[in-house]
Amino acid sequence: MPAIGFEIKRKCKVCGEVFIAKTLDSLYCSPKCSKVAWKRKRDAQRKEEKLTQLALHIPDIREYLSVREAVAMFGVERTTLYRLIKNGTVPAINVGKRLTRIKRSALEAMFLTRTESNAEKTRPVPKKYSMEPGDCYTIGEICNRYHVDDSTVWSHIRKYSIPSRQIGNFVYVPKEEIDNLYKSEVK
Ligand SMILES: [Zn+2]
């Protein structure tokens, strides 16, 4: 990723410090924060794998689930689950101290299972753009507005698959996408 010719200020996604991003892909202020982010991601993946394994081993015929199994199977947060049990939305029984059993069919009616919801998440959502010239910049306008040269703009359009439309001598690109790409993330 080549360095960009202008400054983008961003908030580090780990520590919240504002920093000057060296490339459009920079999300963290320092190698230390990148490492923290990487570790968090790895831990989340490991946790996810464990839950998936647990969910796979729950027999189909079992009608009551433990809290841990329900979390594994439906990807619902533990605290959410306890709240739903407490307010009576999800029927559950106490079979002993700290042994809650939750009615599976009630959960099935309310939540997708973890694998179903993951499939939903990965299905790409087609984004609708207005390609009307009024909602677009020309390449020249982008260069002027963001002080980048046109070959850089084109390389970003290709890299991020930003739609473009040619009318006469001008190429139009949705303002929204370009602004999202180049404007600073700091509010
Ligand atoms: Zn940081």
UniProtKB/TrEMBL annotation:
MF term (GO), any: DNA binding
Domain Helix-turn-helix residue range list: 64-112
Highest taxon of the lineage: Bacteria
Stated name of the protein: Helix-turn-helix domain-containing protein
Gene source species: Hallella mizrahii
InterPro entries (alphabetical): HTH_17, SinI_DNA-bd, Tn1545/Tn916_Xis
